[in-house]
Write a structure and sequence with these properties.
About 50% of the residues lie in helices and about 5% in strands. Strand 3, helix 11 and strand 4 form a beta-alpha-beta unit. A four-stranded parallel β-sheet has the order 4-3-5-6, with helices on both faces. It has a two-stranded antiparallel sheet with strand order 1-2. The chain is of the alpha/beta class. It has three domains: about 100 residues, Multidrug-efflux Transporter Regulator, Chain: A, Domain 2, CATH 1.10.1660.10; about 80 residues, Methionine synthase domain (Methyltransferase, Methionine Synthase (B12-binding Domains), Chain A, domain 1, Orthogonal Bundle); about 120 residues, Cobalamin-binding domain (Rossmann fold, 3-Layer(aba) Sandwich), CATH 3.40.50.280.
Length: about 350
């Protein structure tokens, strides 16, 4: 079968009459994976739907969906997809999966297929215990459906599915909400899994962080043009290499049209001072992940820096951001506790 013929067949399945099963897009949203993943498992491993409507048009039955749920659970534990598929097909020949009622998801706009849309109205919510597992081996709690899909894709090291899910979450919810409600909870769950498993999942954390960084760059608008006295300098304090939260802040500020200068991880003190003097920023945000890197003297030194002509000298507003500053509050310096608050504070500073 040719590529165009298969694509036509896939479109036909999703245009089949409502009420005879789920479309590929609906199945993907229920499982928290990309539609391309579902199609790949169908074509490559024979895990496709068995029911036909209107000739070659096919829909996914409860038995079909149960097999894919089992496939998700196996691949999330690190089993290669080919081996997981053999296991699923072998189990299917021994004992058919129980048929549970399947309610089609609400119809979408023509031509629209959003792989990571929140799974509302598709099926009854699972129990709290089932939600905490999410079929991925990660304790995610009662979170958005997108978290579960992103976690599964990260555990499978599925780059294309992960990119698709991350970009869809950012496009649908906006950058701030996507970070706060989808991406950050998933990163935290991966971090907990890594800490509790003897660094077994460190490659998953690095893989997920890299793809989040890429999605932020692709989704953010171009950096705003410089406006005198309106630039925001972002930097990690010396010894701090956790740059991802600053990348999120940089993208969010770009969305709001604020000029940003991003200097990334572990910027030496001398370089930070030089950067501030050269840019003359309205604000400087200093990120510290760990209390061992958060330095009150450094924050106070930057806040005291002056530039400009005599009689009209200016100083930057310094924000101390990140969990490392907990318990190390610097008097007179703002310390926003979240992304939305940091963006709001910086907008106010720049507007002045």
């Amino acid at each position: 079968m040719g590529v165009h013929e298969r694509d036509s067949q896939d479109r036909g399945r999703e245009n089949a009459p409502v009420g005879v099963g789920l479309t590929t897009g609906e199945v993907a949203r229920r499982l928290g994976v990309a539609p391309t993943t579902v199609r790949t498992w169908d074509r490559r491993y024979g895990l496709g739907p068995a029911a036909h409507t209107g000739g070659r048009h096919r829909r996914w039955t409860p038995v079909d969906v149960a097999r894919l749920e089992r496939m998700c659970a196996l691949t999330a534990t690190g089993i290669p997809p080919a081996e997981a598929a053999r296991t699923v097909l072998g189990e299917a020949t021994q004992e058919p999966a129980p048929a549970a009622p399947v309610t089609p998801a609400p119809p979408e706009a023509p031509g629209e297929e959003t792989p990571a849309r929140r799974d509302e109205g598709v099926a009854p919510r699972p129990s709290a215990r089932a939600r905490s597992r999410a079929g991925s081996g990660l304790r995610l709690g009662d979170v958005r459906q997108e978290c579960k899909g992103i976690a599964r894709a990260a555990l499978r090291l599925d780059a294309s599915a992960l990119d698709e899910l991350l970009e869809s979450a950012i496009a649908e919810h906006g950058l701030v909400a996507a970070w706060t409600e989808v991406i950050m909870p998933t990163l935290q769950a991966v971090g907990r899994k890594w800490e509790s498993s003897g660094e077994k999942y460190v490659e998953v954390e690095h893989f997920l962080s890299w793809h989040v960084s890429g999605a932020l760059r692709r989704g953010a608008p171009p950096t705003a043009a410089d406006r005198p006295g309106a630039t925001v300098v972002l930097a990690c304090v010396p010894g701090e290499n956790h740059t991802l939260p600053l990348e999120v802040l940089a993208a969010a500020l770009a969305e709001h049209g604020l000029p940003v200068r991003m200097f990334g991880g572990a910027l030496p003190v001398e370089s930070l001072v030089t950067a501030v003097r050269r840019t003359g920023p309205a604000a400087v945000a200093l990120w510290a992940q760990s209390r061992t890197t958060a330095s009150r003297p450094l924050a106070q030194h930057v806040a005291a820096m002056e530039w400009g002509v005599r009689g009209a000298r200016r100083k930057p507003v310094v924000l101390t951001i990140g969990p490392g500053w907990t318990g190390r509050t610097v008097t007179g310096l703002p310390r926003p506790t979240g992304l939305a608050e940091a963006v709001a504070v910086l907008e106010r500073v720049v507007s002045r």
